[in-house]
Amino acid sequence: RLIIQTFLGNVDCVRDVHKTLMSLILKATLEVLAVEIWCEELSTTVDRLASEYEHKVSFGSLAFLSSPDSSVETHLAPLLTKYFEYLQMNWESLVSKCEIERMLRAVLDRDLRFFFKNAVFHSVGHILDVCRDERGFLDNIALPPPWKEGVFGNASGGDSNKDMDAAINSYCSDAALVSQALRDLRREVITVNGQILSPAHDVPELAEYLGQILNSSQMKKSLGETKGSILRNSRRRLKKRVSNYTSDFGLESESDFFSGGESDSSVASKVDVGLVDVLARRLLIAASRTGAGGDAYFVVRDLFGGDEVEVVPHHSSGRVNQGTIEIIVKMTSAIIKSHAKFDIFAKPCGDSDPLIQFHTTTTETLTLQQSVDGSTVLLKEKKTKMTGWKTLAIRPAYYEKITA
Asked: What pTM was computed for the model?
């Protein structure tokens, strides 16, 4: 009733009907769903509603057969009733889509997003050329922490570290979410400095397996550096800037960490039990955020999907292969990399080969601090303003040009 009254009070002429009606309904929709941004489905649905109303009343209004008031009661009221019933029946799905749209608007440059969504690619070579030109953008898509976006709980607006701890604790206390994340993790191939992490069925078991690797003799040997060699390594890393992102798994190596610096067996390194717990919790979040329903999928679908093509997680041997997760622990940082592959198919998706494949790497870096206890260097997490932020890199798979 309020929409109808406002519509009658604001529409001045026939050509204003569509614009005015869409604006009023979409604003009301935001309030009903308690979201900040409407998704494409809502915009399309409201656009159809406004067009249908225009079609029904245009001839009668032009011929002076009915007044605006009677047209609204006869035609608009039933359309609005049907629309709000649609919102009520599909509110969970619509809220989720609106939150995804909010995330995409926050992390993607508006002009480049518009360019990719409206680009017409004529060949695989054309896509490769465009991705090469826009590599700086596609390699460095910043993803805010899930607790900052309210994904794992509402931030209080106070201390960001307290927000983070509260949100992660809340997430890890949800038995259903943790159980699903553990199932997702068991489908992944997880390595810690090259050592394969055994599948875990609960959080304590996951932390136990992580602790065994992180405090193994092989890991201690890798981390057994003197303070002088740590300093030399840090200077060397400043001179040699290596990207954390790659499109093909395994092309980028962290082996310089294992071979770099001089080892001193008299100085032992030990990972703090708190860091083991932090990594276990971050793995759970990585599992929930980087599979088929994660940020990587939604960004690839937004940029390279469309009406005529479908983006799907890469299938291998009849099952969804969600990629691999790497943990690389250094003296100054712990890096979590989540890899995934996505295929682009022409619609309708059948048994045909994909048009192109994209590889993604989502990288989170945990800053570490060292404390010396006698002959032991203890590694702990150091929280910074960038804690929880991730970087998403998207690159097409490598293709070899075949000439006749």
From this structure: 0.76
